[in-house]
Amino acid sequence: MTAVAATASVFDALGDPHRLRMVVQLCDSGPRSTLQMAQSISLTRQAATKHLEVLQAVGVVSSSKRGRERIWTVQPQPLTDAGDYLNALSRRWDTAIDRLRAFVEND
Protein backbone atom coordinates (compact mmCIF):
# COMPACT_ATOMS: atom_id res chain seq x y z
CA MET A 1 0.00 0.00 0.00
CA THR A 2 1.37 3.45 -0.90
CA ALA A 3 1.76 6.15 1.73
CA VAL A 4 -1.13 8.11 0.23
CA ALA A 5 -3.39 5.03 0.22
CA ALA A 6 -2.46 4.21 3.80
CA THR A 7 -3.17 7.78 4.87
CA ALA A 8 -6.46 7.76 2.99
CA SER A 9 -7.53 4.59 4.78
CA VAL A 10 -6.78 6.23 8.14
CA PHE A 11 -8.89 9.26 7.19
CA ASP A 12 -11.63 6.94 5.97
CA ALA A 13 -11.66 5.03 9.25
CA LEU A 14 -11.65 8.22 11.30
CA GLY A 15 -14.47 9.66 9.20
CA ASP A 16 -17.01 7.78 11.29
CA PRO A 17 -17.94 9.77 14.43
CA HIS A 18 -18.02 6.66 16.66
CA ARG A 19 -14.55 5.59 15.58
CA LEU A 20 -13.16 9.10 15.97
CA ARG A 21 -14.61 9.27 19.50
CA MET A 22 -13.05 5.91 20.28
CA VAL A 23 -9.60 7.08 19.19
CA VAL A 24 -9.93 10.32 21.16
CA GLN A 25 -11.02 8.36 24.20
CA LEU A 26 -8.10 5.95 23.92
CA CYS A 27 -5.71 8.90 23.54
CA ASP A 28 -7.18 10.61 26.61
CA SER A 29 -7.72 7.58 28.86
CA GLY A 30 -5.18 5.03 27.73
CA PRO A 31 -5.87 1.35 27.06
CA ARG A 32 -9.48 0.27 27.55
CA SER A 33 -11.52 -2.87 27.20
CA THR A 34 -14.12 -3.40 24.51
CA LEU A 35 -16.86 -3.19 27.14
CA GLN A 36 -15.51 0.10 28.51
CA MET A 37 -15.38 1.52 25.00
CA ALA A 38 -18.91 0.37 24.21
CA GLN A 39 -20.37 1.77 27.41
CA SER A 40 -18.65 5.12 27.14
CA ILE A 41 -20.10 5.90 23.71
CA SER A 42 -23.45 4.09 24.11
CA LEU A 43 -22.90 1.27 21.64
CA THR A 44 -23.48 -2.42 21.93
CA ARG A 45 -20.39 -4.47 22.55
CA GLN A 46 -20.77 -6.02 19.10
CA ALA A 47 -20.99 -2.62 17.38
CA ALA A 48 -17.98 -1.33 19.33
CA THR A 49 -16.00 -4.42 18.32
CA LYS A 50 -16.77 -3.84 14.65
CA HIS A 51 -15.64 -0.22 14.85
CA LEU A 52 -12.49 -1.16 16.74
CA GLU A 53 -11.67 -3.84 14.17
CA VAL A 54 -11.90 -1.23 11.39
CA LEU A 55 -9.45 0.95 13.31
CA GLN A 56 -7.19 -2.04 13.87
CA ALA A 57 -7.24 -2.92 10.16
CA VAL A 58 -5.71 0.48 9.32
CA GLY A 59 -3.24 0.29 12.20
CA VAL A 60 -4.68 3.06 14.39
CA VAL A 61 -5.33 0.73 17.33
CA SER A 62 -4.04 -2.64 18.45
CA SER A 63 -5.50 -5.14 20.84
CA SER A 64 -4.29 -7.70 23.30
CA LYS A 65 -6.10 -10.34 25.27
CA ARG A 66 -6.37 -9.98 29.05
CA GLY A 67 -8.31 -12.92 30.43
CA ARG A 68 -11.62 -12.98 28.57
CA GLU A 69 -11.42 -9.30 27.65
CA ARG A 70 -9.76 -7.59 24.70
CA ILE A 71 -7.81 -4.43 25.60
CA TRP A 72 -7.40 -1.72 22.95
CA THR A 73 -4.49 0.71 22.64
CA VAL A 74 -3.82 3.59 20.24
CA GLN A 75 -0.94 3.16 17.82
CA PRO A 76 0.30 6.73 17.22
CA GLN A 77 2.33 6.25 14.02
CA PRO A 78 -0.60 6.16 11.55
CA LEU A 79 -2.04 9.26 13.23
CA THR A 80 1.34 11.00 13.05
CA ASP A 81 1.64 10.07 9.38
CA ALA A 82 -1.86 11.44 8.70
CA GLY A 83 -0.95 14.66 10.54
CA ASP A 84 2.25 14.97 8.52
CA TYR A 85 0.25 14.52 5.32
CA LEU A 86 -2.17 17.29 6.34
CA ASN A 87 0.74 19.58 7.24
CA ALA A 88 2.36 18.99 3.84
CA LEU A 89 -0.96 19.67 2.14
CA SER A 90 -1.35 22.85 4.15
CA ARG A 91 2.12 24.03 3.06
CA ARG A 92 1.21 23.36 -0.58
CA TRP A 93 -2.02 25.33 -0.14
CA ASP A 94 -0.10 28.23 1.44
CA THR A 95 2.33 28.22 -1.51
CA ALA A 96 -0.57 28.27 -3.98
CA ILE A 97 -2.22 31.17 -2.14
CA ASP A 98 1.09 33.07 -2.14
CA ARG A 99 1.40 32.55 -5.93
CA LEU A 100 -2.18 33.75 -6.43
CA ARG A 101 -1.58 36.79 -4.23
CA ALA A 102 1.59 37.67 -6.17
CA PHE A 103 -0.25 37.27 -9.46
CA VAL A 104 -3.14 39.49 -8.35
CA GLU A 105 -0.87 42.15 -6.87
CA ASN A 106 1.30 42.29 -10.05
CA ASP A 107 -1.69 42.69 -12.31
Helix-strand blueprint:
Elements: H1 3-14, H2 17-29, E1 32-33, H3 34-40, H4 45-57, E2 61-66, E3 69-74, H5 76-106
Helix pairs in contact: 1-5, 2-4, 3-4
What number of domains? 1
**Distance between the ends:** 44 Å
Helix proportion of residues, in percent? over 70%
Query: In which order are the strands of the major sheet placed?
Result: 1-3-2
| Quantity of strands, as a count | 3
Largest sheet: 3 strands, antiparallel
- CATH homologous superfamily descriptor: Winged helix-like DNA-binding domain superfamily/Winged helix DNA-binding domain
Structural class estimated from helices and strands: alpha+beta
What's the CATH architecture?
Orthogonal Bundle
Query: Poorly predicted ranges (pLDDT <50, ≥5 residues)?
Result: none
Rg:
18 Å
CATH level 1 name: Mainly Alpha
**CATH domain topology:** Arc Repressor Mutant, subunit A
Describe the overall structure:
With 107 residues, this protein is α+β, with helices and mostly antiparallel strands. The chain has a single domain, classed as Arc Repressor Mutant, subunit A, CATH 1.10.10.10. It has 5 helices and 3 strands. Strands 1-3-2 form a 3-stranded antiparallel beta sheet. Helix 1 crosses helix 5. It is elongated and about 70 Å long. The chain starts with a helix and ends with a helix. The model has no long low-confidence stretch (mean pLDDT 92).
